[in-house]
Amino acid sequence: MKTLTDERAKESVRVCPDLDKVSKGSPLRVGVLFSGGPAPGGNNVVAGLFDALHKVNKESILIGFLGGPSGLLEEKFRILEKFEIDTVRNLGGFDLLGTGRTKITTEEQFALTKAVIQKLQLDGLVIIGGDDSNTNAYFIHDYLKKNEVKCRVIGIPKTIDGDLKSSEVEISFGFDTASKTYSEIIGNICIDAKSSLKYWHFIKLMGRTASHVTLECALQTSPNIALIGEEISQKKWTLKELVSQIADCVEKRASLGKNYGVILIPEGTIEFIPEVKVLIKELNRLIEEGKGTSDLTSEAKDCFNELPKDIQNQLLEDRDSHGNVQVSHIETEKLFSRMVASELKRRGSKAKFNPVHHFFGYEGRCSFPSEFDANYCYNLGYNAIRLIQSQKSGVMSVIQNVAKDVTDWKPAFLDLEKALVEEERGGKIKKVIAKSLVDLGGPVFKAFLEEREKNRIEDNYKRPGPIQFSGPLKNLITKTLELESF
Amino acid sequence: MKTLTDERAKESVRVCPDLDKVSKGSPLRVGVLFSGGPAPGGNNVVAGLFDALHKVNKESILIGFLGGPSGLLEEKFRILEKFEIDTVRNLGGFDLLGTGRTKITTEEQFALTKAVIQKLQLDGLVIIGGDDSNTNAYFIHDYLKKNEVKCRVIGIPKTIDGDLKSSEVEISFGFDTASKTYSEIIGNICIDAKSSLKYWHFIKLMGRTASHVTLECALQTSPNIALIGEEISQKKWTLKELVSQIADCVEKRASLGKNYGVILIPEGTIEFIPEVKVLIKELNRLIEEGKGTSDLTSEAKDCFNELPKDIQNQLLEDRDSHGNVQVSHIETEKLFSRMVASELKRRGSKAKFNPVHHFFGYEGRCSFPSEFDANYCYNLGYNAIRLIQSQKSGVMSVIQNVAKDVTDWKPAFLDLEKALVEEERGGKIKKVIAKSLVDLGGPVFKAFLEEREKNRIEDNYKRPGPIQFSGPLKNLITKTLELESF
């Protein structure tokens, strides 16, 4: 029986005209690694690298480091052959090599990196990752340069969260596919809400710092409420205020006979709420000092006491190896639904309120890349080899004008050093690539605002459906990219 | 911008040759209602009814009852017009009319049903629902017949769970689309597991009585473990044994350097485990008698004490309006992961074990119907009118030979009375349509067994990807239907 895996792996991808001109040259030896969480399209970056390398010279070699940056440090790698590249073209996943979150930051690690690069005689190292990994790419480049090692380091902009973008970088790869995958499921749930007539769906979505995914999914599906972290932060909305806003919506809809609805909540919301931020900070400090919740300041204590019992337990018991609260483990969707239930009770409301909870994240990180991501990633990889060939280092591979057809795409690069800013991280000032947050004055948020009030009350649910790989819908791009490219 | 909603709504569906011959006749007045949870394809049943009715006679009328069976009792209905039928063709959801779970069982309700049917002068009533709703369809038919009301009652086999099937009924509608939607997401998660290399995904799936959905998804995606309720029941596996099986797999994989995996758990598993069944029964009785857990029998107490704290709380606190444990609310996926973690600790195991939890159900009930479900549902609706026209009543609309192309499909019917069996429900013997369970000697379970042992250890993950509506993959059927049709 035919499968999509077979069909997609056979499908050819397109290279923009400027890249098609990659010139012949001496054989190159290039290493590549995945860093951080997977994003759809990673395999096509590798396929782009491989094909471009072999267009330059058939003797070129592509080395894949296994399990992320640790594969480089530990010399775990494999020389990639055409037959295996041909089995992963247009397929999702970072499983060709595996990925990991090891960061190369210590002097010892840099020295090790240099030694491995020299041993393998690499002309180039390609790091496929998000903001942290691209920051890392810059520092590896800087170290190699200072030590006069002639290996060019290129970063590839990856993240489903969409927070690695700028005036130069129009979109990070994976955002297109992941947000479409979530929108498919959210759209289904919206229609289920309107069919079953009795559930309020609280849906948490990935996106810890930026709410781009939630914003895109909201434009694709028109839920009743979508919280946007950046707005909560700017308006300094408290937990009580947010709960009250949701309870108002539940009551208003109940008065219209609608005991159902859909709410999107970005994973990071919890960290945007001022008093919760303070609480988490205090809890981290208290544990370190061996104290208990009785030592919280009164502001933090008030906030803690308002939280549902199971969330309180989670905050106290679920700690990482440094004793810190595991923010990403907090079931924010339940936190809100429980507090809304309490608020409705407090108000003596007669609204029927049956919450159902969801968290979508892992569901979209390894989907089959959309036609957009398949082409985009292949071009990013292809371009990386062009950059290595032209002796660029400490740069990110960039493709511009991507809202248009591939024939109009323009390869470019971003000097990573220029992208660095100083930020406080863990009490120290560090040079990093800043995460790009939702622009509350930008066209995407404006489009959301235009619909927001009526979507709270009316059932304007939309269902984009599953990603299509043939037919008239295969070339759809995200609303975010469309609106930002005008 | 084009949308899948627009594209699908325009797409025509096919009627099998025997149905295309529906003969002209007097105008008919037919009522239709949705009953129970939504399933992809419901709109196409209604579209099939509508088109067939108008082929019989352009003056025919289709009346849709709103919000499920209660719409009939409360005379909440709408005469359906062509323009609105044309907006929902090939789209998922029961939102055209809404659905509900009211059952028509009392003498008063039967009398009311009769009165409404007579008032609206219905020639036919079509009930789109699962086993209970089709049982209900039979008893409404029986009541009308005894009271000499000439309204024909036809049931339509709906359920994503796939447990409404028999030698006559090859598949219930919705199973194809829902299991493909879940398989898409599960496949993505499998690849994520193999990419990220550090998570064990515990995925709960809908299917409270039968495990058909889990079995189909297992064949589509090859996870490391898939629990099948019917097997647990047959082999009388205890909770401890199941937890031990999973912990063995976690340890074995860890010894191979694989600290990740995927486990599918049908929603109803918990009720298949003998000692949990006893515990739930006792808890329901104790609450009724105003007693506490200290009054549990020692067998039930042992089982209760083994459960993780939060699951214990759930069992004690989360009750329905009759004070019964809400089995469908139990987070079975967490129950297993917590107990596996404890078991690994007890063994002194060094396996790294980071569980992530998912529950997929609402995600697949309102998807765009697959090409199979779109055609199948349209034919079921079309056939229902043919049955009404030929004076059949108390029957289910059936289409056979559906593993083949539409041109080979055969319309038929099933006498509901013959499908009834006696079962104990809530302490009383009742005539019901029995749920069809997984046949442990059948070809589907055999296919699963053939792969099971190697899938535990090896990474044989498959990713079917999103449902396609054009191209070579649009006509795929489920493995279950394929294997059962040989």
Features:
homodimer, 486 residues, alpha/beta, Rossmann fold, 2 domains, 7-stranded mixed beta sheet, 4-stranded parallel beta sheet, 20 helices, globular
Question: How many DSSP E strands of chain A?
Answer: 13
Strand content of chain A: 5-15%
Radius of gyration of chain A over all CA atoms, rounded: 24 Å
Anisotropy-based shape of chain A: globular
The overall pLDDT of chain A, averaged over residues, is: 95
How would you name the oligomeric state of the polypeptide chains in this document?
homodimer
What percent of the residues of chain A sit in helical stretches (DSSP H or I)? 40-55%
Low-confidence runs of chain A (pLDDT<50, min 5 residues)? none
Structure described in brief:
Chain A is built from 20 helices and 13 strands. The interface between A and B is large, with 57 and 57 residues.
What does this structure look like?
The structure is a homodimer of 486-residue chains. With 486 residues, chain A is an alpha/beta fold. Chain A has two domains: 4-174 and 369-433, Rossmann fold, CATH 3.40.50.450; 179-365 and 439-484, Phosphofructokinase domain (Rossmann fold), CATH 3.40.50.460. Chain A is built from 20 helices and 13 strands. Chain A has helices at residues 4-10, 17-20, 42-56, 69-73, 82-85, 107-119, 131-146, 175-196, 212-221, 229-235, 239-255, 269-272, 274-288, 298-306, 309-317, 332-346, 371-389, 416-419, 443-457, 479-484; strands at residues 29-34, 61-65, 77-79, 124-129, 152-157, 200-205, 225-226, 261-266, 355-360, 395-400, 410-415, 420-425, 428-433. Chain A has a seven-stranded mixed β-sheet, sandwiched between helices. A four-stranded parallel β-sheet of chain A has the order 7-8-6-9, sandwiched between helices. In chain A, strand 12 and strand 13 form a beta hairpin. The first copy, chain A, is globular and about 75 Å long.
